[in-house]
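Entry 12.
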Amino acid sequence: MSRHPEGFVRRSTMIVAVIVALVAGAYVGGMSVLLYQSSQSDQAGQFGQDSGGEAGLPPGMPGAMPGGKPQGMPPGMPGGAPGGMPGSMGQTSSDLTPHILELEKDLALSPGKTDQWVELGNLYYDADQPAKSIAAYDKALALGLKNPDVYTDMGVMYRRLGQPEKAIEYFDRAIALDPGHEVAHYNKGVVALHDLNSPETAMKTWEVLLAKKPLAKTPDGRPLADLLAEMKKKAGAGVAAPKP
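Predicted 3D structure (tokens):
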């Protein structure tokens, strides 16, 4: 994913993983459940044991920041402040406006550029304009794009619009293209648990993920297997997951 000068993010050409806590929060047995907010990367959403970084770390490590490799953990990991909302990485909606206008002008002249529609969707994502982000991604899909990372990020945008069922649909589309897509599986579980009040679906989703990626971790660095074990323990004891 590329960046414009001054540190603006474009998810489509440099590795970026913006990690934020769910806006309303979700807690299971005292464990905070976070949502991976971006999956688009040069590694097709792979992280943990399959990536070039440390085991369990999401995309957004080497190459994520302009000027070389970032130092330390990405935002949202232990010891770092959650990031991902507008302004959290040195960008605001007004900062992104010139770049959005530039892309829209280019696309008005050449609407067949799939990568630029994705880039526009990414900029609207960063500007916290989910409806416009989805519309731009849809243009790329209409041109024939089939990318599990884009589907996953569309799922996040639909969730932000308060449409969890659509979010699940797009996470499932990502998984259909890439059965080992960790971010899509993880986010599907979070939405099932928090928004659809279906811990059973969340647990089944994470079981499938752990069967493929046993070292998968939550965005704050905790083993997903530990969270799943605690959920199963609570479910066996008939204890409901507390809601925020």
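Annotation: The chain has one domain: 3-236. The chain has a mean pLDDT of 72.
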